[in-house]
Amino acid sequence: MRKLQSQGVHHITLTGADRQTSIDFWEGTLGMPFVFDQPNLDNPREGHLYFDPGDGRLITVFTDEDRVPNARRTPTDPGCVHHLAFNLSRATFLQAVDRLNERGISHSGPKDRGFMDSIYFKDPMGLLIELACYKFEPPSGCTHADVMIRAHQIRVHAGDYNITEIHLADAIESLVSDRQNSLSVDRSARNPY
């Protein structure tokens, strides 16, 4: 038996409201360019809008002109989607509260998650959206996941409850040490003063 090896998220498809509400939210609020439009090939009454969330992958939305926004929270029963999280730069994240407030969008305010900061709010159909901003940049040649697994190992070894900035900094130092050669025999921290 062999795995069906995933190589990333291809796309996520959501059930949206009408066409204009969907465009106004995904492009007009979250800044995702509207890149493709066609009928829903399984239901010709619906539209199928495609948006680029910033990494070239796709968020797609089924639209129906008879559906109207419904801010009631989507179900969170087992098997349901709890929320979608989108990455923001630090510069944009620091302005997110003001930008949500100017649209009258109710939100959680910033939440410290140890390795990232988050803000939560609902889309026009009640789906919880998270705006997330990592507290670190991975070293060259590494991914955020590389840093996270190393920080997790450091945290568990230390017996700490959750990942914090010290685990991230130590993980980054460890990854650089593993991946980057040096002419120095002793690469330990030293005080030159």
Provide the fold topology.
Layout: E1 11-15, H1 19-26, E2 34-40, E3 43-51, E4 58-63, E5 83-87, H2 90-102, E6 111-112, E7 116-122, E8 128-134, H3 144-158, H4 165-179
Parallel strand pairs: 1-4, 5-8
Antiparallel strand pairs: 2-3, 3-4, 6-7, 7-8
Helix pairs in contact: 3-4
Overview of the structural elements:
The strands form two sheets. This protein has a four-stranded mixed beta sheet, with helices on one face. Helix 3 (144-158) crosses helix 4 (165-179). It is built from four helices and eight strands. It folds into three domains: 10-68, Roll (2,3-Dihydroxybiphenyl 1,2-Dioxygenase, domain 1), CATH 3.10.180; 70-135, 2,3-Dihydroxybiphenyl 1,2-Dioxygenase, domain 1; 144-179. Helices cover 26% and strands 25% of the residues. It has 193 residues and is an alpha/beta fold. The protein has helices spanning 19-26, 90-102, 144-158, 165-179; strands at 11-15, 34-40, 43-51, 58-63, 83-87, 111-112, 116-122, 128-134. It is elongated and about 70 Å long.
